[in-house]
Write a structure and sequence with these properties.
68% of the residues lie in helices and 0% in strands. The chain is mainly alpha-helical and 101 residues long. The protein is built from five helices and no strands. The protein is globular.
């Protein structure tokens, strides 16, 4: 994100760094979220996240921001996000720039 803000491609992590981050942080966080939801008996949250494969595929589609692919979203959480995203974009200027990308 900092690379985008500063428009400096040297700040983009290497593929190895991205893979390590996914392995060490992202994937464990996903499973922690599932375990917390199950422990709290918040089954709808666990259900909305879906399988790891579907969740991470949906995350990839969302990060690319390709509206034409939103029909491919598999998880309930991602489909709800896609529905709310346009509303969020309309609200950002109204709220005086309190939200940034």
């Amino acid at each position: 994100m900092q690379a985008q803000i500063e428009q400096d491609s040297s700040l983009i992590p290497t593929e190895d760094e991205l893979q390590a981050f996914a392995h060490e942080v992202t994937i464990p966080c996903f499973f922690d979220a599932i375990q917390l939801a199950q422990a709290a008996r918040a089954t709808s949250i666990a259900d909305d996240l879906g399988s790891p494969e579907d969740f991470f595929k949906d995350l990839e589609i969302a990060k690319l921001g390709d509206l034409s692919r939103y029909g491919e979203l598999k998880t309930q959480g991602a489909r709800e996000w896609a529905q709310l995203w346009p509303c969020n974009e309309v609200l950002k200027p109204i709220l005086g720039g309190h939200f940034t990308n």
